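Continuing the batch. This is chain 6 of the set; chains 1 through 5 are on the previous pages. Same settings as before, nothing changed between runs. Recording input and output for traceability.
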Amino acid sequence: MTKLAGKVAVVTGGASGMGRATVMRFLAGGAKVVVADLNAANGAETIAVAKAQGHSDNIAFVRCDVAKESDVAALVAEAEKRFGRLDIAYLNAGVGGAFGPIAETNVEDWDYTFAVLVRSVFLGMKHASVAMKRHGAGGVILVTASIAGMVGGGGSHAYSSAKAAVISLIDNVAAELASDRIRVVGIAPGVISTPLVHRGKPEKYEKQFGHQPWPDRGEPDCIADVATFLCSDDARFITGETIKVDGGLLAQGIALWGTGRNNTFMKSAGVNRGTTGEAMVVRNLRDRP
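Output for chain 6:
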């Protein structure tokens, strides 16, 4: 488990779910990791878990709003200051974002969704690539996309559109940075059992987990395994690729949240702020004609 020995990584949204699982896998693989998250309480818990596993000297936490350029620039600068370089940027931070019928979607919630899911990726790519070029040894920019950005029916219109934009960014920036030996790759999860999906009540979402043909539930470690491979030299000839990690869900076709008026996203509207520690807003539409 030393595929990432000597590498320095930043992981946004690294304090819970897929991010935390990947942080632990990176540390086990020999990397030094700066964890970035808006939720400082989750960040402290992640640091405690890492220290309990003997990684006290190889991990740090930075509270970061990934939609703010000054925060992203400071995150990259902290990785260089603390560990001397930057080899891997895993741009994983995300929220569920705006949901509900198009006519019920507030422009502020739409903008928030794209700020966290798309602008953050642009900012991460911008500042990470500068740091990687400065050290002259190439690097890997890994992005959490989603199968929702590949097909209709995988999420709300705002979330799905944002993830489609992210997949396009991966393709375009991969071509731009290849000459600097910086690989840009993506992971498109299906339904993964994380706090972002189940919000502490996984039993309420059993139906979504049951849609995929593969019999085992998607867990954060499934993403961490693929992330570690993509950031290692084993994947040295892979760039501009977004890999589905979905238990065959997309292969069979999806309607994860129902269809037509029975779609879950048609029954309420609001914005899901994920594990940021900020409150979710829900407006019930069930009583409307």
